[in-house]
Amino acid sequence: MGEGQTVHLADDDEDDRMLIKDALEQANPNLTVIEAEDGKELVENVKNSDDLSETVVLLDMNMPRMNGIEAIKEIRSEPELADLPAVMLSTSDNPELKKKALAAGANDFFVKPNNFKALLDIARRIVSRFLGQK
Question: For domain 6-131, is the CATH number 3.30.43.10?
Fold first, then answer.
């Protein structure tokens, strides 16, 4: 367990991507994190992946070119990607955004925390739930 596990991460904020990647790698040091700057790049990365068996998609709600909702809908429209776990992150705690994300096909929704300890907790929950790492 832990080998070959991948997170496809999309966030247009480079600092957020770096912090999220650090948290994910602390939660599981064997994890591979593939970064994208927006939903369009993320969808291309996912479609070009050879093995998605132990993969989770983690994406920001608001991004240019293709936002998180659009990216999840695009992923869900592909039969071979329909069951790929997807987790939405947002700076907003608006319950309507969470409803929209879940309706689009997100498996979970987290509000981006303002400290690393809370982000690490979210990363551990994602790794544990979707990649079987305890």
Answer: no
> Is 0.90 topped by the overall pTM?
yes
| Among 111, 101, 115, CA closest to 19 | 115
Containing 89, the helix (H) or strand (E) segment is: strand 86-90
CA dihedral 34, 37, 40, 43 (to 10 degrees): 10
Say if residues 87 and 58 touch (Cβ distance below 8 Å). Answer: yes
DSSP string, 33-77: EEEESSHHHHHHHHHT-S--TTEEEEEESS-SSS-HHHHHHHHHT
pLDDT level of residue 3 (50, 70, 90 thresholds): low
Please say if the pLDDT value at position 1 is more than 60: no
Number of CB atoms found within 10 A of residue 99's CB: 11
- Tell me the per-residue pLDDT of 71-98, one tens digit each, with 9 for 90 and over: 999 999 999 999 999 999 999 999 999 9
Q: At what angle do helices 68-76 and 95-104 cross, to 10 degrees?
A: 20
Q: Domain residue spans in the chain?
A: 6-131
